[in-house]
Amino acid sequence: MTTSALDETRTDGESEQRPAADGIAAGKPFTWLLLISGALGLLASFVITDDKFRLLQAKLDGKTLHLSCSLNPVISCGDVMQSDQAHVFGFQNPIIGLAAFPVLMTLAMGMFAGARYKPWFWYGLQAGGLFGVCFVSWLQYQTIYNINAVCLWCCLAWVVTIATFWYTAVHNIKHGLIKVPAKARALVLEFHWVVPVLWYGVIAMLILVHFWYYWKTVI
Fold this sequence. Notes:
Elements: H1 3-9, H2 13-16, H3 28-60, H4 77-81, H5 94-112, H6 119-147, H7 152-174, H8 182-190, H9 194-210, H10 212-218
Helix pairs in contact: 3-5, 3-7, 6-7, 7-9
């Protein structure tokens, strides 16, 4: 049996931390996560972009457009889409998602077909995820504390970006691409769900606390 075959079939911690010479495969759960996250992120990016075009058209026509995701003064997609923060790089933010999320879906399909990727690929995916999670963290702050409104489609993009970043890190820790002490590695692999749950919980709590003045009037 070849060394690469041993790396593929063995499940002990030593083999998982030694990158295979012919590349590293992804497990089915992680592959499904990339596919689903890519699809949901693409949906959110498409809807936001389409709604932005509709808002611009309504403005040109001298009309007022009420978006279906603008439910109240707090959950108001229109306010977020028309803010300065919605086009940080000189173009609409969701265009980044329209380019990035299909890449995740394509990579996932390759993984389902048995593709194995070199370490530099996984580092690149991690770097892309780091950029994404830093960007959405900045947008979360801007949305909650400066724009004072929340876009549900943006929240969906936040959720899948965080999940993609974290589980790419888990994959890289598992295969030894990100070096951590053995005990930390065991904790990450055993309780991998804790970080995203706490992360989402903190975001939800910040939204709840900041807009409590409104929530308490409708409860």
